[in-house]
Design goal:
alpha+beta; OB fold (Dihydrolipoamide Acetyltransferase, E2P); 46% helix
Length: 239
């Protein structure tokens, strides 16, 4: 019987097609990297921008430098609740549920009205009608000043870097697969689904390395990434 070594199901992709995947992956990594660089530069511009003078609606100061606009606002309402997540990785699929209490303040200013997160102390002390200063960077809320306390919020450019970092990791893994294996059976193997969580973990760590993060978040990110790597490697060995 003639032994088949062709490119059937589970066989290796042709060399030219694997090369095309590598080139496409390289282009994808460069594209993701460019988006990350753009996000970093945009965030740096915000962090270095001064506060606008009161009443300045141009979001710029003398010389054309952009500034963080300040708008006078009013507290309208408040709300609190819990956001819960379940870790379904434990035996039996039951998982452990972890809940975090959130505190929101509804603030109105000339442009619009929005719910903004605040700390527990501000939530307890604020009353309807209290003054609140909203700080805007390119029309996005980046700060809230109430009762003498300042609460900062990351600009969209900062939070937008994580998905591009994660996507870059996945694309890099795809390029490595094309070089090392090129077999469709290994690409769609069950253990590889763990790479989605690994990529998110590396994207999370990379984002905090660029923009900073609370030590508790660093701990969660390291545990997440470590567990994802451990699960992926263990599943591959068992498979």
């Amino acid at each position: 019987m003639k032994k088949t070594t062709g490119n059937g199901r589970g066989g290796r992709l042709p060399l030219w097609l694997r090369g095309l995947v590598v080139v496409a992956a390289g282009w994808g990594v460069v594209l993701c990297g460019q988006h990350v660089v753009d996000a970093y530069e945009a965030t740096s511009e915000y962090r270095e921008a001064p506060l606008c003078t009161a009443g300045n609606e141009r979001e710029s100061v003398d010389g054309g430098e952009e500034c963080v606009r300040r708008e006078a606002g009013t507290a309208l309402d408040r709300r609190t609740g819990e956001e819960c997540t379940t870790d379904g990785s434990s035996a039996g699929g039951g998982g452990v549920t972890t809940c975090t209490t959130y505190y929101d303040l509804k603030v109105e200013w000339p442009e619009r009205t929005a719910w903004l997160g605040v700390d527990e102390e501000t939530y307890d002390e604020i009353t309807k009608g209290d003054r609140a200063e909203v700080r805007l960077w390119r029309d996005d809320v980046v700060g809230l000043v109430t009762l003498g306390r300042t609460r900062s919020y990351p600009p969209p450019s900062e939070s937008g870097a994580l998905p591009w970092l994660a996507a870059g990791c996945l694309i890099l893994a795809l390029g490595a697969w094309a070089v090392v294996s090129g077999r469709l059976a290994t690409l769609f193997a069950f253990p590889n689904f763990g790479l989605l969580f690994v990529a998110f973990g590396f994207g999370w760590l990379g984002s905090m390395a660029l923009f900073g993060g609370h030590p508790v978040l660093w701990g969660f990110a390291i545990l997440w990434t470590g567990f994802a790597v451990f699960w992926t490697v263990s599943a591959r060995r068992m498979g």
